[in-house]
What we know:
heterodimer; A: mainly alpha; 3 helices; 80% helix; B: 33 helices; elongated
Amino acid sequence: MIEIIVNVGLVILAISILNCLYRVLRGPTRADKVIALDSLGVNLIGVIALLSMKFHTEAFADVILLFSILSFIGTVAASKYFEKGVIIERVRD
Amino acid sequence: MQLLVLAPLLFTLFVPLLYRRVKAIHVGWFVLLVPVLLFVSFLRLLPQVANGERVLQDLSWIPSLGVNFTTYLDGLSILFALIITGIGSLVVLYSIYYLNRSEQLGHFYIYLLLFMTAMLGVVLSDNMIVLYTFWELTSLSSFLLIGFWYQRDKSRFGAQKSLLLTVFGGLAMLAGIVLLYTITGTFSIREILGQKDMVAESALFLPSMLLILLGAFSKSAQFPFHIWLPDAMEAPTPVSAYLHSATMVKAGIYLIARFLPLYAVHDWWFPIVSGIGLLTLIWGSFLAVKQTDLKGILAYSTVSQLGLIIILLGFSTPLAVTAAVFHLFNHAAFKGSLFMMAGIVDHETGTRDIRRLGGLFSFMPITATVGFIATFAMAGIPPFNGFLSKEMFFAASVEYAGTLNWGFLLPALAVLGSIFTFVYSMMLFFKVFRGELQLEQLEQKPHDPPKGMLISPLILVVIILTIGLFPNLISAPILAPAVEAITLIPQEPVEIEHFHGFNWPLAMTLIVIAVGTLIYLSYRKWLHIYNHLPEFLTWNGWYDRSLRGLDRITTSLTRIQMTGSLRNYLAIIFIFIFVLSGGLLLTTDSFAFSTSDLAPVGWYEVLLALGVIAAAITVPFLTSRIAMVLTTGAIGYIVVLFFVDFRAPDLALTQLVVETISMVLFLLAFVHLPRVPKEKGSKSLKLRNLLISSSVGLLVMLIAISAHSTRLFTPISEYFIKHSYDLAGGHNIVNVILVDFRGFDTMLEILVLSIAGLGIYSMIKLRNRKEDDV
C-alpha cells in the first residue's frame, strides 16, 4: 500500500518539477525564474524524502536538511542581488 | 697517446692566464710550444709505425655503451698527425707576426688549440663515437675561427654557412655510424674493418656507406657542399691556411680513406666517390679562374684539389691510393704556403684583389719566390712536388680507365680539370707579381714583410723543393705505411721517378701545359663566358633560397596552425581525439555490446534523464548568461537526484553544495560581463562545430558502452564492503575509503583546493594596477 502511495507522490512531484523547470526556462522575468527555482528546490526535497521512504533508508536525511538551507540561501542571495546589484556589500570605512 | 691528443686542449687553460699576465711577450710564442712538441713526439713514433708497429691505447670513457677513447696509430693516422702538428706549428709561428697585438689573441689561440685537439682526435680515434665527437668539435672550432672578426657581417654569414653545412654532414655521418654499430655491434673501426665480409652482406651496408660519404663530402667541401669553403675565407689568413687548406677539409678525406677497405668492394663506390670528386675537380678549378680575390682563388683551388684526391680514393687501386696520399701531403705543403703568401700580400699592400695587384716581384722578391714555387707546384710543373703527384694521378686514371667501358673519358676529364688548375695557378702568380705596378691602387708601398712572417712559408717551400727533387725521402717512411693502412694490404714502398719514359701521363702533362698556356695568354677572350653562367649553377643561390624558403615555409606553417583562436585549437584537439580513438575502436574491432548485466530501468530514472536532456539541449539556444548558468544549475540539481536514486548520499550532499557554490560563483563573475555576443560564425562553421560535438559525444557513448560490456575483472569493492569496519572502524564505506584506504588521494585533493584558493586570492590581490583591463 505504502509503495503505491510513494510512487503516486513521486509522479505528482515529477510533474510539478517539470512545470517548475518550464518556468525556469521560460519565465518572463528574472523573479519568475528565481521563484520557480525555489519551489523546484522544495519539490526536490519532497522527492528525496519520498525516495528515502521507498529505499527504506535514513541516509538521505542530511541531504534534505542541506537542500532546504541552500534553497533558502540561494533565494535570499538572488533577491538581494536583484535589490541592490551586489550580494556581499563592501565594508565602507 | 690520449695525452698527445688532449695536450692542446689542456693548454688552453693557460692561454688566458698568459695573455692577461704576460703582456710583454706575444702569447703565440707560448702556444707555439704545443704543436712543436707534439710534432717532435709524433716524429719519434714515426720509425716504429714505418716498421709496421701499431700503437693502440685504451682509455675507458663510457664502457657500458662501448664508447672508449681508444687511440690507434697507423700509417694513415701518423701522416695526418704530422701534417696537423707540423703545419700547426708553422701557422702559429706565422700568426705571431700576422696578428696584431690589438686583436683578441687569447680567443684566437684558444680556438686554434681547440681545433688542433679536435683534429688530432679525429685522426687518432679508433672509436667512432669519439671520432664523431671530435669531428663536431672541428666544426665548432672552425665556426668560431671563421667568425673571429665577429663585428663583420660577412664573417658571421660565412661562419653560419659552414656550420650549417658541416653539421648537416656530421649528423648524416652519425647516422651512418649508428647503422654500422647495428650491423657489427661495435664502435671500434678496427673491429669493423675486421668483419667487413659480414658488413658487406648486411642490408644496411649501402645506407651506411651513403651516410658516411655524405658526412665526408660535406666536410671536405665536395660538390655541391663546396659552397661553404669560399665563404669561410673571411677567417684570418692563418686560419684559412691551417683549417681550410691543410687540415679540416682533409678530415673528410681521412674518413673516406679509413673506410675504404670496408666500402670499396661495393659497385657504387667508384661511381659515387670518383664521380663527385671529378665533378668537384672540374667545377672548382673552373670557378677558381673566375675569382678576383686571392683567397677566393685559393678556396676554389682547395675544393678542386680535394676533389682530385677523392677521385684517386674512388679508384682504390694501390697506385691510386699512393697517389692520393702523396698528393695529400703535397697539397698541404703548397696550399699552406700559398695562403701564407696571400696573407703577406694582403698585409703589405692592403688588398687581395688581383685586379689591383701586379708587378710586385721587384718589391717583394722573397714573397714572389715563395709564390712562384708554390703556384708552379700546384700547377703540376716539374721539378716541384705537384708535378710528381699529378703525374701519378694521370697514371692512375689511365690505369683505371683500362678497366672501364668509356674509360677514355676519365683521363680526358682529369686533363680538363688540370688545364683549369694550370690557368688559375698562372693567374695567381703572374697577376700578382708580374705585370704593371699600380701604386695608386695600393694602400701602402709594398715591400717584403718582416722576416718572422717569411719563416713559415719558406720552410714549406723548402719542403716542396725537397720532395720535388727527392720524392723517395718520404716514400718508405710515410707513404707506404699510409697506403698500407688504407688498403690493409702490405705495400712495398714505390719508387717515385721524375721521368718514366714517353707514356700517357707525360703526354697528358704536356697537353695540360700547352693548352693551359694558350688559354692563359688569351684568357681575356674567354673571360666573358663567366658572365653568361647561369646563376643557379653557382649553388650559393640555392643555399640562400633554401634558407629563406625554410624560413617562409615554417612561418606560414606556424601561422596556419597557431591561429591564436582557442576555438580552433579545441576543434583540432577534439577531431584528433575522435579520429584516434574512433579509429582505434574501429580498426581493432573492440566495440562490444552486451545486455547481460544491465539493471532494470525504472520510470523514475527515465523522467530524470529526460529532464537532463531537455536542459542540456536548451543551453546552446539561450542568449542570456544568467539563464545559461541557471539551466546548468538545474542539470546539476537533477544529478543530485540521480545520486539519491543510485543511493549515494555523500555524493548527493557534496554535489548539492558544490553545485550551489559554483552557480553563485558563475553569477558573481558573469554579472560583470557583457551579454553573450551574437554568434559570428557562418552556417558552415556552426555545422562543423555541431558535427564535432556530436561525434565526440557519440564516441564517448560508444566507449562507455564497450567498457561496460567487457568486464575483465571482478571489482574490488567487495573487499571494502567486507573490511570497512574491522580494518578501519567505520560503517560509512565512502568516507572510510576517502580517509583511510585511499587517504593519499584526499590529501592531494585538499592540496588542489588550497592551491586554487591561493591562486584566486593572488589573482585578485596582485593585479597590476596600471594595466587594470588585463
